Structures are given as C-alpha cells and as structure tokens.
Amino acid sequence: NTATGMMSLIFIVIVMNTDLTVRRSLEIDMRKAIQDGDFQLHYQPQIGEEGQIVGAEALIRWRHPRTGNIPPADFIPLAEETGLIVPIGNWVLRAACAQLALWETQPETRHLTMSVNVSASQFRQPDFVQSVTEIVRLSGITPSRLKLELTESMFVDNVESTTAKMNALKAIGIVWSLDDFGTGYSSLSVLHRFPLGQIKIDKAFVRDMLTNSSNMVVTEAIIALAANLNLQVIAEGVETVAQLNRLREAGCLAYQGYLFSPPVDIEAFTKLLAPEAAS
Ligand code: C2E
Ligand code: CA
Ligand code: CA
Ligand code: CA
C-alpha cells in the first residue's frame, strides 16, 4: 500500500543521504590527510630468481586520526572520482622517489627498483608527463629504477595520447609495468602495441593456478608470451611454496606475495634487506 511505499522511499532517501554524508566527510578528510601527514607508504618486496630482494612496490596507507587505518580500496576510488587522486598520486610519487634516492646512496641498496601505482584519472591529466618528469628530476633518482604500474583499463580510450605519454616517459628511462594482467577486457595486442617493459600476472591467476587447470594454462601462456616479447614478468599474490615452484617451472623468475612478505613500513622493509644487521 501507499503508506509502506512511502516508508520505504523515505528509508531509501535516508540511506542514500547517509552514504553521501559519509563520502563527503571522507573527501574532506582526504584533503586534510596530505597536509597532516596521515598518508604513509608501505613497501612490498619483489623477489628475484635467487630469492633476493630486487625491488619494492610502494602501496599507500592512510592512518585516519579518528577511524584508524583505511585500506586503499576504500578511498582510492573516491579519490579518483573527486580528482583528489592527482595531489595524492603526486605525493606518492614524490615519497617513493625520495626513498629510492636514499637507496641509491648506499651500496647495499643501490640496485633496488621502485614500483609505483598510477591511477587512470591521474594518467589522463594533460600535465601528467610534465609532473612526473619534474618529480623525478627533483628527486635525483636514476629513472630506469622507477617502474610505473598501469592497468589495462587505461588502454581502452585514446590509443594515440596514451602511447605518446608512455613514450615520453619511457624516453627518460622510466619503465612501464602492466598491473593485474589478465583480468581486464583488452586483447593481447596491448602487449606489443604499448611501450611496456613489464607485466604483472594478477593474483587471481596465481591463487587458482594449482586448482584450476585453465588458469594454469593461461598463466603459462602469459609467461611464454612475455618472454617472446622481451617483457619482464612478475607474479603477484604468491602465497605458497607450491605456487612459487610451479611459476618457476613455467619460467617466471620474479615474484611478489605474502610468501615473502606483506607490504611493510620502511623500518620493517630495511630489516628484510639486512636481517642479520637488524637482529
Ligand atoms: P595492486 O596494485 O594490485 O596491489 C597489490 C595488492 O595486493 C596490495 O593491496 C597488496 O597488499 C596485496 N597483496 C600483496 N601480496 C598479496 C598476497 O600474497 N595475497 C593477497 N591476497 N594479496 C596480496 P593493497 O595495498 O590493499 O592495495 C590495493 C589496491 O589499491 C592496489 O592493488 C592498487 O590498485 C591500489 N593502490 C594502493 N596504493 C596505491 C597508490 O599509491 N596509488 C594508486 N593509484 N593506487 C594504489
Ligand atoms: Ca600494483
Ligand atoms: Ca596488482
Ligand atoms: Ca589493482
């Protein structure tokens, strides 16, 4: 009847408004978080053939003063919608490059690479190339130790401008890495059409590899294809020794995942680099 209809309508409106209020206050807090220093980078080691740490992926963490830690999946999408991803993304890049510059000053860490996530709307900014170039230049790092991670969704619109931006940063030495590979809708042609240096096998494939034979076949095909196209390949989400062994047999020689370490703060990462010195 009409009364219950009205009631549920009112209810829906209240729920929607609450959601809007939450999003609105999250947005306000996000603006403050940069100034207040509430964002932090964690680093997840990337492991090479001999089990050594070859680099790190920088992953943002938000220590919210009232609600505690907020995972990136809960604020990056809103940051993208509101455009706040631009200042946040620049902060991430600056902080990651500053860390990389520090590593370059020490003989034990100067070989390490740094991977940084770039979101679609950040990449789409007209001055993206310029701001990355500027941040890299000011940090003094060797650009070839910096990897920028993109997802397949960025290859769907405007192939020309995407390629131009990627080429411009590749020209100064930056390496492009294709994140979450295999989960998107783009065709395999992105692998040779865009100036990529690395692909990351998505953790969904690694997770189901040993229980789902078609996932194993796809994983093996990706590794073989990467080798043929001279692309580095790294598997993410490696959690078990069985997965590691299977990936190694398939020819994948770089790994990231909880088996080695979750993303950790810089103090803990430094201990991972030199466990004997730290204990
Ligand atoms: P991603 O780029 O695919 O990052 C990998 C995610 O997998 C990270 O989650 C990491 O903690 C998690 N992970 C690592 N090893 C394992 C494993 O063995 N098993 C499982 N199940 N998960 C593993 P996190 O840090 O919560 O980040 C989630 C997503 O948020 C990232 O996915 C990325 O898309 C986004 N993100 C994180 N930091 C940034 C950033 O600085 N900028 C942008 N634009 N996006 C970011
Ligand atoms: Ca990533
Ligand atoms: Ca990923
Ligand atoms: Ca992702």
From TrEMBL:
Does the entry feature the keyword Transmembrane helix, yes or no? Answer: yes
Organism equals Rhizobium aquaticum
Transmembrane spans: 1-16
Q: Which residues of the full protein are shown?
A: 158 to 436 of 463
Q: Which domain of life is it from?
A: Bacteria
Q: Where would I find the EAL domain in this sequence?
A: 23-277
Q: Name the UniProt key words of this record, in alphabetical order.
A: Membrane, Transmembrane, Transmembrane helix
The protein in question is named: EAL domain-containing protein (Putative c-di-GMP-specific phosphodiesterase class I)
